[in-house]
Amino acid sequence: MLVNNMRLTRKILFIVICLLFIDSHLSHLRSYESRAKAAFLVDHATGQTLYGKNEDLRIYPASMSKLMTLYILFETLDEGIISLDEKFIVSMNAYQREGSTIYAELSTMISVENLIKGIVVSSGNDACVVVAEALAGSEENFAMQMNLIAKDMGLLNTNFTNSTGLHNKNHFSSPRDLVQLATRLLDDFPQFYKYFSETSFTWNNIIQYNRNNLLRMDLGVDGLKTGHTIQSGYGIIVSSKRDNGRIIAFVSGLDSNDERTSEILKLLNYSYRGFKSYQILKKDQLIEKAKVWKGKKETVSLIVDEDINLLLDIPARRGIRLEYLYKEPIIAPINKGDKLGEVHIIYPNSETIEVPLVAGEDVKKKNAFINMIDAIRHFIL
Q1: Which ranges in the chain belong to alpha helices (H)?
Q2: What top-tier enzyme class does this entry carry (predicted)?
């Protein structure tokens, strides 16, 4: 049968990116190593990993857990179930919650918008509990909802037991999962992302300042969240927009606020200075001509259907290669856009990036008589 005669075609292309155009200040850069227990740096547009250290390690996320609390709150707003002006009551459970607080008074009513600000800026545990109880009846029910959404997002190393991030041995996440959660916040609810850039919040005549002190530096940082408990150490996840691009950076397990600031600054600086954007593949670029079986054309064009741009550091620029994988002959009929194979983009210290190879044209099937003649030729020759 023809299926037994099909073969996997693998072609490897080494790309030489001209190093003459690398800025002189990049030539002395050495391999970056974070002092954080875990660190992760990702390009928001492509999901490309720029740096990883223990990115799949289970950690205690502390107040970075509040990103999921906010995600559920934003989703409820987006669906029109509640409004920013709607008010929720402060229960005894919320009023007595330990840790960081917005100083909400018992039995008072607080608007959803102020609760958002209280969670983002003040990291208020009381505000989180108010939200959890209003949306799910209890914090326990809300934690179940958090876990359902985490599972739906594919957060494989995450489990929530509360809305605040207060320590519990069964409350954990990973740098990769937290970055993915931050990405979903940015992508799914851009209309609410503005709250992450607010630098202060006043409630009950008490002003508090955002613990994300990078917001007050000229670095392009416009969110997201810090976290700290005795068990977790100091951590932070930030999003930074610069030169029409956006990166998400994460560090955790540090010993002090100053060390946290220092390490996240080093990671951001590494992303700004160590990488340049290159177009690796162009939309509709012809990659290969593959043989066709039973078609009115003998070959079909294999193309990519989108531009592929990557941020590359010096080692990646020197070692990048492409692998084209597809099986041939490809049996007609073939429709333009059908996935027929893959391009694997491989470069040092990074995960392989897979890009679909698709048909660049339609190939109609021959009539039965011509197919019979071709079959005889195929097996005779």
Answers
A1: 2-5, 66-78, 92-95, 112-120, 125-136, 139-153, 175-188, 257-274, 314-319, 368-380
A2: hydrolase
